[in-house]
Specification:
The protein has 109 residues and is mostly beta strands. The protein is built from no helices and 14 strands. The chain has one domain. The two termini are 21 Å apart.
Length: 109
């Protein structure tokens, strides 16, 4: 099973912007942080993507494909294999998020 993404993981957009990882999850976690949930939306800062001369930075990441059998409060937990779509301020999809430093084991409180 792929590792679980936590608030201690690193997630960035495909253009190098970094996501601020916060979660509504208060129960499942590990020493590196709380497990991220499929319902979490993460804010991106530092994306330098442009379309021609117009800046079009990634500003948020929405998630899909969380764990089928692992949840916290009835919401799927994000895995290293989950798909995070990065969006522009106008709501246009701009690529898939890159995640690293997953937690191999997570426990419930």
């Amino acid at each position: 099973m792929p590792g679980v993404l936590t608030t201690g993981s690193q997630v960035q957009c495909p253009h190098g912007g970094r996501a601020t990882l916060m979660t509504a999850n208060a129960k499942a976690g590990s020493p590196s942080g709380k497990a991220l949930l499929e319902s979490d939306v993460h804010i991106v800062a530092g994306c330098a993507f442009t379309i021609g001369p117009k800046p079009s930075p990634c500003v948020r990441i929405d998630w899909a494909a969380g764990a089928v059998k692992l949840s916290a409060g009835g919401v799927a937990v994000l895995l290293e294999s989950s798909i995070g779509t990065c969006y522009s301020p106008e709501g246009a999809p701009q690529g898939v998020a890159l995640a690293s430093q997953p937690e191999p084991k997570v426990s419930a409180l």
